[in-house]
C-alpha cells in the first residue's frame, strides 16, 4: 500500500492575517502523516517593490520578473514568508524545513520562452527531484516550499505557487497516495463571489467549462482549476479547494475537484 | 576514524563582488568530503534598510534588531543571499541546501538578555541539532546556513554568522574531525591593515593579547578571533583565517589559529 502525503498550498494572504495564520499553524501542525506546504507571498512582494520604487508589472495575474523584481520576490518568498512560516511551525512542534526549488536541486524549471509576452526570469517546472524530496520526507522533515525554482545553471526563476503545488503532487503520485489541497480564505469555489455560502461542492471539467462561459468563475480561480485538472489527469488521487478547517477534517463546505 | 567536515564562513562582501564570488563557487564546489557553508549579508541588509527609510543601528559592530530590522535581515540573509548562493553552487554541481537555524530546528538560540544594551531580536546559540545536521550531511546535501536562528517558540533571531560557524564546528567536533575556515577577501590576519602582505602566519591567545594591546588587530577581526579560540578550546581540530584559495589548498599565506 502506498504511503499517504498531503500537499497543502496557501496564499501569501495567510501571512498578512494573524488570526488566519494562527488557525493555519494549529491545523497544519496537527495533521498526521507526511505533508508538504507550498506558499505564495505576492501581495507582500508587490508592497516591497512599491516601497523600493519599482512598479510591479503584472500580466494575466503573473508578475513580469526582471532582475530587480527577482531580487524582491527572492527576499520576500524565500526570506520573509518562508522563514516566518518555518519558525511558526517549529514553534508548534512541526519539523518544518524551508525550501526553494534550487535547494537540493528539488525543482528544476525552464525559463518561459518569449512569445507575445516576455515574462522575464519566470520558469515553468521541468523536473521534480522526487528522490531528494523522498529523502527529506522519510527523514521526518516537513518541506515548506516557496514559489522559486532554478534552471540548474545558477539562475533562480520565479514560478507560480499553485503550479509548484500541482507539479509536486504529480511527481509524487507514482510512489505516494497524494492529496492536493488548495487552501484559502474562502470556503471553496463560489458560484457568486459576493456570497461566501455559494460554494460549488463538486467541479469537473464539464461544469467548469459551462461556469466559465457564464462568467461565474473568478479570474484568480481559473489557473487554480487548470492546475487541479492537470494534477488529476496525471494521477493525483484527490484535489480539493477550500478553507483551513479542511486540514482538520472539519470544513462544513469545500469544493472537490473531479475529472 | 572520524569523518572529516569542513565548515567555511564567508562574508556578505563575497556576494557583492562577481569575480570573488566566481572564485569562491569554483573552489568550494571542488572541495571534497563533507562541507558546510555559513554566510553573512550585513552590507546588503544595511543598504536595504536605508532604501526602506530604516536607519541601521549598530553597536560594537552588532545590529540592533527591532521587528522591522528582523524582516530586513530575514529577507536579505535567508532570501537573497542564501538562495543566490544555493542556485550558484547548484549550477556548479554542488548539492547545496539553504538553511536558517529555524529549518529542521537546526540551531536554537536564546534571545540575548538586556544589560547595558538592548540588542532586540538577537540570539546567542543555545543548541545545535547535530542529529538533524548529520542526517542532511549523510544524505549528500551541502548545508548553506544564513545568520538566523530561532527560539523554538516561533521567533526568528538575528545571530552573528562568525558565531554560528564556530557553534556548528563545536557541535560537530565530538563526532567529526572539524576544520573551521573563516574565509575573506584578505590573505589572513594582518599586522598592518594597510599592507596586505603583512599576514601573521600563526596566532595564539598569547600573541593575540599582545597584538591587541599594540592595537594592531582591527575591530572586525576581534570577534572572529574570539570565536576561533572558543572553537579550539571546545575541541575543534583546526581553525584558519584566510583567502578563498585556502579551499583549494593553494593559499600562499593565511593565519593558523592556535591555543
Distance between the termini of chain A: 24 Å
- Classified in CATH, the superfamily of chain A is Acetylglutamate kinase-like
Strand neighbour order, sheet with most strands of chain A = 5-8-2-1-11-13-14-12
Question: What is the arithmetic mean of pLDDT of chain A?
Answer: 95
General shape of chain A: globular
Under the CATH scheme, which class of chain A? Alpha Beta
DSSP, total strands of chain A: 14
Radius of gyration of chain A: 17 Å
CATH architecture of chain A: 3-Layer(aba) Sandwich
**H/E series of chain A:** EHEHEEHEEEHEEEHEEHHEE
Which chains make the largest contact? A-B, 40 and 41 residues
Number of helices of chain A: 7
- Helix percent of chain A reads 25-40%
Tally of individual domains of chain A: 1
Q: Oligomer, anyone?
A: homodimer
Q: From the 3D structure, determine the CATH topology of chain A.
A: Carbamate kinase
What's the quick description here?
Two copies of one chain form a homodimer. The first copy, chain A, has one domain (3-184): Carbamate kinase (3-Layer(aba) Sandwich).
Description:
- Two copies of one chain form a homodimer.
- By secondary structure, chain A is of the alpha/beta class.
- The first copy, chain A, is built from seven helices and 14 strands.
- Chain A is globular and about 45 Å long.
- The interface of A and B includes residues 51, 76, 83 and 87 of A.
Amino acid at each position: 500500500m502506498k504511503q499517504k502525503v498531503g500537499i497543502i498550498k496557501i496564499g501569501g494572504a495567510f501571512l498578512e492575517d494573524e488570526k488566519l495564520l494562527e488557525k493555519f499553524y494549529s491545523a497544519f501542525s496537527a495533521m498526521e502523516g507526511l505533508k508538504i506546504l507550498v506558499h505564495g507571498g505576492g501581495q507582500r512582494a508587490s508592497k516591497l517593490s512599491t516601497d523600493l520604487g519599482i512598479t510591479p508589472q503584472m500580466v494575466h495575474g503573473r508578475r513580469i520578473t526582471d532582475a530587480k523584481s527577482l531580487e524582491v520576490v527572492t527576499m520576500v518568498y524565500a526570506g520573509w514568508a518562508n522563514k516566518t512560516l518555518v519558525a511558526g511551525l517549529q514553534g508548534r512542534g512541526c519539523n518544518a524545513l524551508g525550501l526553494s526549488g534550487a535547494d537540493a536541486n528539488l525543482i528544476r524549471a525552464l525559463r518561459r520562452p518569449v512569445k507575445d509576452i516576455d515574462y522575464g526570469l519566470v520558469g515553468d517546472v521541468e523536473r521534480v527531484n522526487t528522490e531528494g524530496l523522498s529523502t527529506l520526507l522519510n527523514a521526518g522533515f516537513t518541506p515548506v516550499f516557496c514559489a522559486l525554482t532554478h534552471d540548474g545553471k545558477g539562475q533562480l526563476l520565479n514560478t507560480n505557487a499553485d503550479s509548484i503545488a500541482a507539479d509536486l503532487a504529480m511527481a509524487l503520485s507514482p510512489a505516494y497516495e497524494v492529496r492536493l489541497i488548495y487552501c484559502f480564505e474562502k470556503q471553496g469555489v463560489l458560484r457568486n463571489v459576493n456570497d461566501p455560502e455559494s460554494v460549488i461542492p463538486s467541479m469537473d471539467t464539464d461544469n467548469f467549462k459551462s461556469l466559465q462561459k457564464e462568467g461565474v468563475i473568478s479570474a484568480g480561480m481559473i489557473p487554480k482549476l487548470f492546475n487541479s485538472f492537470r494534477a488529476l489527469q496525471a494521477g493525483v488521487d484527490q484535489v480539493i479547494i477550500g478553507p483551513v478547517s479542511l486540514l482538520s477534517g472539519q470544513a462544513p463546505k469545500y469544493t472537490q475537484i473531479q475529472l
